[in-house]
Amino acid sequence: MGSLAKVSIICTVFNQADFVEEALDAVLNQGYHNIELIIIDNGSQDSSKEKIKNWITNKEKFECRFIDLPESLNYCQAFNLGLKQISGDYIIDLSGDDQLCEGHIEQSIRALQKSPNAAFSFSDAKLLDEAGKIRSYYNREHVSDLKKFIENGSLYQEVIKGNPISAVTVIFDSKILKELGGYDETLIYEDFDILVRLTRHYPAVFSDHQGVIKRIHAQAFSANQYLSRNSSMLPSTVKVCQKIKFMNQTQEEDQALLSRVLFECKHAIWSANFESADELLKIATSIKPRPMKVLIYQFFAKLRLDFSWFYPTITSIKSSLRKYF
After folding, report:
1. Which range is the signal sequence, renumbered to this chain (predicted)?
2. What is the pLDDT of residues 129-148, one digit of tens each?
């Protein structure tokens, strides 16, 4: 593979003119000298395209290609266009509103090379809100001390059940990602599905550093996960859960899926996304033993009571409390 592995960065941009130059500057500041950068503008309607072109003209210092899409594709389709063009040993999926922290590539590649069977590495992230406050993805006593051990290795059950991986920090082994066909283009979002498919067959490795600054703002794609009455993302979550049921091999894995399905179902009901709730409950009823919670959720799903007006308040309160506990 050579003394310095080649890293391909696919930066996908959609109406992120306020952030894209900082995202690209952070790539320059990595201090890693074997980078291939592919920038995809996914049909932006703001000034993102102009800012990207200006950045390439004035600041680009390494291999760089620009894919200018006249109309928006879903994120997975746009990313896969870049995936077909990359030649690196490893791949970073970078959103146009996030930033790589200095040294992220070097530290992650070091971890991957120490774990040659791993499909990807992941690290901690800095979550930056609109007020400028930063917190880490994983709880820390201090800047450098994690409160609990972060699991490595086989993470399939953990990925099904919750969110043990900071997806924005992932660096993929390109050969493995390509062998799996890249992202599933029938889905609206990518991270849950690709992490499930990878961890089903391969281990992952954690690198204890803060690798990416992820912006938390109202325009962020993830903010629409449980959009009241009209989530475009929940149907993709349902599809991934259906895939998992097919891939599962043990009762323990099914119980992990049941936990995830009930979590998603609760939010689907509260946000009045009842069609998705119905599909999630179909999965839940196929898994035994079946807890009383399934019957409770079935009852509320049938009532079709719209509490979505109150849902943002509940999630805001929970989010505030989570910062302190």
Report:
1. none
2. 999 999 999 999 876 789 89
